[in-house]
Write a structure and sequence with these properties.
75% of the residues lie in helices and 0% in strands. The protein is an all-alpha fold. The chain is elongated and about 55 Å long.
Length: 119
């Protein structure tokens, strides 16, 4: 029972520090003069917003006592957020690796989306 209580206290401390920290991080990284100078700030801002949404969904999941569609929806959206965060870290790492290996080369990729409607 003691280990269970310690885990809950650690979880509440993580939430108490994580929610304001993620809000402040998102505010700092989403400022226009910061975002326009560095492409990595978009990744860092997205990670902060994703982590904040995950923490808020976990709080909702913990206090949603009855089962049903709301609890299941929150659980699945929270799992999606948990899967998205490592992918964002991977994208950030690959972007930094490219910036280190090819520092002065600018790569421009153009995507063309064609939508045809057949009647």
């Amino acid at each position: 029972m003691l280990l269970y209580d310690v885990i809950w206290y650690v979880w509440y401390v993580a939430l108490a520090l994580g929610i304001p920290g993620n809000i402040l991080s998102a505010i700092v990284w989403l400022r226009l003069h910061v975002t326009s100078k560095n492409s990595s700030t978009v990744y860092l801002a997205t990670i902060a917003v994703d982590n904040l949404a995950y923490q808020l969904l976990e709080i909702t999941f913990l206090y949603c006592s009855r089962g049903g569609w709301l609890r299941d929806s929150v659980k699945h959206i929270g799992r999606s957020m948990a899967i998205l965060e490592p992918l964002l870290v991977l994208g950030f790492s690959v972007e930094r690796l490219i910036a280190i290996l090819r520092p002065l080369q600018v790569c421009c990729v153009r995507f063309t989306l064609t939508h045809t409607i057949t009647n």
